[in-house]
TrEMBL record:
Gene3D superfamilies per UniProt: NAD(P)-binding Rossmann-like Domain (3.40.50.720), ornithine cyclodeaminase, domain 1 (3.30.1780.10)
Protein name: Ornithine cyclodeaminase
Pfam families to which the protein is assigned, alphabetical: OCD_Mu_crystall
Cited InterPro entries: NAD(P)-bd_dom_sf, ODC_Mu_crystall, ODC_N
Domain of life: Bacteria
Coiled coil start-end: none
Length: 148
């Protein structure tokens, strides 16, 4: 089975403008029922720590998958990342086709949702943040020509 690291995922993801277009299509598919997601299913695995399972499907495109995200505060004491994630991709027949690290995918997806939302409102944009999310949002906002 294929596994893609975050570096490989980053190399395969579309440019920010295309990611926003794809996210807009996805949001419309969710709105009209062509695609589906369920609310996050969460379990607690240590004090302050949890794991979320987030399945989604878009049958007409043959897409089926789940993102698994863990937040483990005690990892900081061991020099490990506090947040971890894995994306599992299945074929239309339900067989697992690939797994991939989820950090890069999550950063771009979150920023692409923001970018798709910006198309609904042409007012100036201001955002606050740091780290991965700030960088991914800045790339999308700049690519859309919305930076001020």
């Amino acid at each position: 089975m294929l596994h893609l690291s975050d570096d490989q995922v980053r190399d395969l993801l579309p440019d920010p403008v295309r990611a926003v277009e794809l996210m807009r299509e996805t949001l419309l598919a969710l709105a009209d029922g062509a695609a589906s997601v369920t609310p996050k299913s969460q379990v607690v695995h240590e004090e302050g720590g949890f794991a979320n399972a987030m399945p989604a499907a878009w049958p007409e495109r043959g897409l089926l998958g789940m993102k698994w995200v863990t937040l483990t505060p005690s990892n900081r004491d061991h020099g490990l990342p506090m947040i971890g994630g894995l994306m599992v991709l299945s074929g239309a027949d339900g067989t697992t086709r690939a797994t991939m690290d989820a950090a890069e995918l999550t950063a771009q997806r979150t920023a692409a949702v923001t970018g798709a939302s910006l198309a609904l409102d042409d007012r100036p944009v201001t955002f606050f943040g740091t780290g991965v999310q700030a960088r991914s949002h800045a790339r999308v906002i700049e690519a859309l020509g919305r930076a001020r």
